Batch of 2 targets.
Target 1
Amino acid sequence: MKLVTTTLAALLASAALAGSAAAECEVTLRSSDTHPDGYPTVEGVKAMATEAKEKSGGRICIEVFPSSQLGEEKDTIEQTQFGVIDMVRASFGSFNDIVPVTQTMSLPYLFKSEDHMHKVMDGSIGEEIAKGFEEKDLIALAYYDGGARSFYNSQKPIKSIEDLKGMKFRVMQNDVFVDMMTALGANATPMPYGEVYSSIQTGVIDGAENNFPSYDSSGHAEVAKYFTLDQHLMVPELVAMSKASWEKLTPEDQAILREAARNSATVQRKLWADQEKASEEKVVAAGSEVIKDIDKTAFVEAMAPVYEKYVTTPEAKDLVKRIQETE
């Protein structure tokens, strides 16, 4: 209850600052994001807000609160379930304890490419996954792109699975990640993100894994010059709305929001692709070597014991099969 009260107080203060602009709107929805202003996910929800306001004749307004102003992801997800916050943008990973099907989406090499992930999430599988959120008082409005994680290291270009043997890579404290590295023949070293730079620099680890923007902004490209674009993990991002807030809307306004959200995903994905490209160009110009077009067959086949351990129910096995078969 204390968390609810604190968040409510923050919302009331933010609403006061919004001033007369919000007063012009018949429906004002507050949306939370942990990323800073200007980040692709924030700009995606802003695009949704612009379209919703235009198509509703100014009746629907969405106020976007970036930089964790309303709390961190897990807290704001909970408040969205309660209806204290109207909308939230969060990674699928933050929903793992709430909507079990999201755990399946964190399996390594589940998606062949970012385009494949988009096709899966925009189709019937995405609609099916959305039902799992509704059961938890959340309405899934749009699936955004959170990028693809790949390996980078200070020792050598990784062009095949054999090149990974015996190497030490930092991974998040996550059993799936640890088991993934073991299956690839490498050694997983869980550690805080802030320790990665110095650990690569001093040889405690050989490398880590992340997307191009993080590889760039963290400075890791300075000490780990070899980036292998294997894209072993792609976790979707979600824009979700409180079911309580959703049910207060007319069917017409719900339709406006759904269309605006769907269109905003296109905007967000384009912005993310541009950011990835800019980061890649920057690190290459600074001396990094990007290894592309590797044959991932052996990497994917090595995941058999990982999938056997974590994909245990008939429903999960069927979902994985359908995702892999999506063209």
Target 2
Amino acid sequence: MLRIAFLLCLVLLPAFARAQEDADWIAYRDAYRQMIWFEKYGKPKQFLQNHLRLQPRDKNVAMDGLRLTLNSKTAQVTLALDALGRAVLPFSKAAYDDNAELVVNRKPGQFKAGPWVSIVTRPDGVYAVADLRTACEQLLAYLRYGGEARGKSCVGVQFTYLKNDAAQVQFRAAGGATSVLTAKEGPAFAGDAMQGFRVFAYRFAAWPEAGQVVTSATPLAIAALLE
């Protein structure tokens, strides 16, 4: 009996190790359900967008060459990833019924995957301060609906660009005067392992309530600053 138990341990330990490595990975069916959760969310969300996002667990894991594919019994679809590891997840009932797999071209355990909500960017680059405040509150309300961000409040938003992007972000007062926001280096979202982006933090308390935030180029992302 002891020998049998020992052999079972030898068989099960690799599987357990893989399960630990992939503990933060997500199956297509689960991702599908979570996207539906966002679609069916009944409170205002016109300033929000939802993606499937891959996040490296370690800052030394490179995003270059990263590929994500959806593999089903009948098809293999490559899902485009942006610089922050976000992809638009296709809603496929056939892939859901086939129990399709989300596969990344890296070693198991290097990435975690899950839904990611952020603020929608505008093609004209002009954001009314009132809309940014509303967007932040909408994102906070959604996170609270899912049991997150308890005890936090909206203090601002952050615009993210690639490190070498020379884009500028300005505040335009109601009277027309403009002030340039200061760029810093940091992560696109709080808690990210990925660093080295050019970020502009717009804190509500530091600027007048009336006005606009004007960007010279579309940011990679707009994040809510929750503290």
